[in-house]
Amino acid sequence: MAQGQIKGLQKHKGSGGRHAAKAASAPKKGKRYIAPKKAAAVKQAALHKELSAKINRSIEQQVAAAASSGKLTIMKNVALEGASSDKDKAAKAKKS
Q: Residues with Cβ < 8 Å from 35, sequence gap 6 or more?
């Protein structure tokens, strides 16, 4: 007769609570962002955010246009939306 417990039937202690507490106590990795308070810094941050959004939108439209020419037809809608919004903006600019 075997003495002690069989390996398959042993119950493992859950140590998830300890890991969660340890993760919560440690600071998160990565940069910290502190919102600007001076007027010039606020204006610069807003401009930076706007330009970043425009650049990202442009890149997404270019990728969508490149993908729509091939087999990746899922992105066609994004490419068409980007092209139509550019045409609308151009038409409004000419009217002004």
A: 45
